Write the structure tokens for this entry.
Amino acid sequence: MLELNRFAIQENKTVFPSVQTYDIRNGDTGELVGTATETLSPLIKTLRWVLSKHWLPTRIEVREKPDDSLVFTVGRSGYLFRSRVEVRDAQDVLVGYFKSHLLTISGGFAVYDQNDTLFAQVQGRLFGFDYCFLTADNSVELGRVSKRIGGPAGVAREVFFSADNYFLEINPDLSEQPLAKMLLVAAALAIDLIYKSQTRGITD
């Protein structure tokens, strides 16, 4: 899965969602390459009916098709002023983490590697779904998450997917850096599963 540079992330809609699940597809062909699923305790599932989920712990497992092998997890113990979201590999080793900016209403956050070095800044718009991953000095775009995929074939590729999906494009310069790509895929999931939920209703 991490050999790809283009991903389509497709939310699976249910009538009464207690957890969120996503299909991860090849952004060029539509082929299913993985899944992302929240794994929550019965208590946390119950509390979600009365509390906004961004106040509660969450854990997301990302698994690769066809064997459903674990690739990495994204987890947060809770929320207090600034939320720390950790990314761990299949052996539960810390790969990096995210920290939301203290005074932001557009969903921006910082991405750090396992050595506490700032790897990327995630900048978003107040309205819509368009986020870019920039290097620490803001000089290079490492990737972008949006509702549309770029390039002349982008509109045709969207035929594979519903309007609820979003697309992740990673800079080809990171093609041989699987840990960096892992952080970016995890950040793309965190935008929707964790950070965007902070501006939604309590039943989200």
About this structure: The CA atoms of residues 87 and 93 lie 8 Å apart. Confidence is low (pLDDT under 50) at residues 150-159, 198-204. The chain has one domain: 6-199.
